[in-house]
Design a protein that fits this description.
The chain is mainly α. The chain has helices spanning about 5-10, 50-60, 70-75, 95-100.
Length: about 110
């Protein structure tokens, strides 16, 4: 989600080492990039920053449930079993850097 330059200039706090993580005043699910933004035309975008309680409420409204830890792990691994990593057993340096939170300033994930 990108915010306008005007909103960026109003931001007084930031997360050290995570310039892309911006505390936007007035941002919430209907206005994810702050006042004036909308979720319109974003129906195919993934839902992010969902709290556990929000997820429980969503499931309850639909007569569903959250997956168990085992179910979630199986889905996150794409069905792979007995593998060290979700992508298999091979070590990948690029993935290791990502998992450790080491991001290069010139990379845009």
């Amino acid at each position: 989600m990108f915010v306008s330059n005007k909103i960026k200039q109003e931001i007084k706090d930031s997360v050290p080492g995570a310039k892309w993580w911006l505390p936007v005043e007035g941002a919430y699910w209907r206005s994810p990039a702050g006042p004036g933004s909308s979720v319109e035309k974003k129906g195919s975008h993934p839902a992010v920053h969902i709290s556990y309680n929000d997820a429980l409420h969503y499931c309850k409204q639909r007569g569903a449930r959250l997956p168990t830890e085992v179910e979630w792990e199986f889905a996150a691994r794409g069905g792979l079993r007995d593998q060290m990593y979700p992508w298999g057993n091979g070590f990948e340096k690029k993935t290791d850097e990502y998992l450790a939170g080491r991001f290069s300033e010139d990379k845009h994930w």
